[in-house]
Amino acid sequence: MMLRRGFILFLPRVVGLLVVACCSMSIVYMLACTPKSDNQQLALPRVHSPTAKEGYDAILQEREEQHRNYIISLKKQIAQLKAELQGRTEQLKKMQNQYSDSLDIRLDHSKPEKAQANLLAFLRSQVDKAEVHSGVKLSTEYAAVPFESFTLQKVYQLETGLTRHPEEKPVRKDKRDELIEVIELAVRSLNKPDGVSKAKPHVYTASDFVEGIYRTEKNKGTLYELTFKGDAKHQFKKIVLFRPFGPVMKVKNENVNMADTLINVIVPLAKRASKFRQFMQNFREMGIQQDGRIHLTVVYFGKEQMNEVKSILENTSKSANFKNFTFIQLNEEFSRGKGLDVGARFWKGNNVVLFFCDVDIYFTAEFLNSCRLNTQPGKKVFYPVLFSQYNPSIIYGHHDSIPSLEQQLIIKKETGFWRDFGFGMTCQYRSDFINIGGFDLDIKGWGGEDVHLYRKYLHSNLMVIRTPVRGLFHLWHEKQCLDELTPEQYKMCMQSKAMNEASHGQLGMLIFKQEIETHLHRQKLSSKKT
């Protein structure tokens, strides 16, 4: 009885403890399960705050907004990654098109048309990569790939080695067949009807071919520029062809009218009146009488022999009825670069071809046309490699007499060499010369100014045409290397002096002259004894 009464009294206490325990567990659960903000744990709704349901709705809505913003951020990052991946893919495709075109040219015999299209696309890409339509920037003067020139009978080449000659027939079958194929293709292209003109077309033959130049870029192909006689005097047809290590492709077919293209020949001079008289004989015959589209600018330094030079110029003007000349006198020390620069800037007429020349140069009328054909304002400048004459006293020392000047001017290994280290004789439009900045006027005396200008053109986007020409000669004269020159200029002058005298074989004969005479004397004595 007492046990039942004690149990009844203890039961409310147990129930109260259980209620307290349940409440405590509910509070702990609520604290543990309440959503957190980014920086701190979100608090439970308080007594004076909105109801618990409204509080939880607000918390859930805020959390949902946070997730929504996070998803938007992820989508932006994914879009950026896709764009970057697309850009990388385009770059990869471009590199494959530029450098791996050969991998795409698969001769799939099941699809011959596609294979042919791929091949043609690759070959045309070679034209775009090569220096055909425009020049490319080059780092040094040695980086320029020179052209070689040819006619129907001869090839004029720079790299002669030990056995080849500066001028020779194309004896190698591959070279002969190559040039014949190019000329024949050019003739067929010229005779192909254009479908526009109704006049009877001129039928071109190989005999209309004047000259051509070509060069090979070993990783692209061979570029050919061929010149044919036009329909009238002073008019030409020019064909540009390219062999991208495969079939030759016509690049350009254009009419070139040089009838009104004037050349301003600029000659810097100090003293040397006798040489100027010889120069004017050549200028009168080739420039005035045969060509006729020429102007002469003489820039004279000092006053010594000036009256004699002016007299020669005036006499030529009167006898040839030639008025297209300018005489500029400067009272200062001779500087070739200064003279050429002053002469070029003095011209006030329309844009003109400038031919920078020296008094000891001989040129032909054919060269003047080459000067015009290989220059183009804003596109091309012409740096011909001239043929430098050896000392006639050494070359013809075993002859009874030295031949006339015209008879001496033949291109052979024994008579001279291609002056491929010289950059002084050049043709360019005046606009290109002015835009490039002209000569470095700080260079005094002999040498250096021409190389400086040449490098300027190489560093530009202009195409530099460098080729040996058969109508431009440097006449031999004794070279004096003055003590006033800088060490570098003096070294260049002495090297040029040594190169000018004779060929290796002829110089060897001079060096061993005593030994040869001793041998001949012994032979003579031996024959007498027997």
Task: Supply the key terms.
530 residues; alpha+beta; Spore Coat Polysaccharide Biosynthesis Protein SpsA, Chain A; seven-stranded antiparallel beta sheet; five-stranded mixed beta sheet; 16 helices; glucuronylgalactosylproteoglycan 4-beta-N-acetylgalactosaminyltransferase activity; coiled coil; transmembrane helix
Could you describe the 3D structure shown?
The chain is α+β, with helices and mostly antiparallel strands and 530 residues long. Among the domains are: 141-191 and 205-256, no CATH class; 263-509, Spore Coat Polysaccharide Biosynthesis Protein SpsA, Chain A. The chain is built from 16 helices and 16 strands. The strands form 3 sheets. The chain has a 7-stranded antiparallel sheet.
Question: Could you provide a short overview of the structure?
Answer:
With 530 residues, the chain is an alpha+beta fold. It has 16 helices and 16 strands.
For the secondary structure, the number of strands is: 16
The CATH homologous superfamily of the domain at 263-509: Spore Coat Polysaccharide Biosynthesis Protein SpsA, Chain A
Strand order of the largest sheet: 3-2-1-4-5-6-7
Low-pLDDT stretches? 1-8, 31-45, 99-107
Note the main sheet. Answer: 7 strands, antiparallel
What is the structural class? alpha+beta
CATH-level-2 architecture of the domain at 263-509: Alpha-Beta Complex
**Gap between N and C termini:** 176 Å
Coiled coil: 64-98
Main location: Golgi
Catalytic activity: 3-O-(beta-D-GlcA-(1->3)-beta-D-Gal-(1->3)-beta-D-Gal-(1->4)-beta-D-Xyl)-L-seryl-[protein] + UDP-N-acetyl-alpha-D-galactosamine = 3-O-(beta-D-GalNAc-(1->4)-beta-D-GlcA-(1->3)-beta-D-Gal-(1->3)-beta-D-Gal-(1->4)-beta-D-Xyl)-L-seryl-[protein] + UDP + H(+)
Transmembrane segments: 7-32
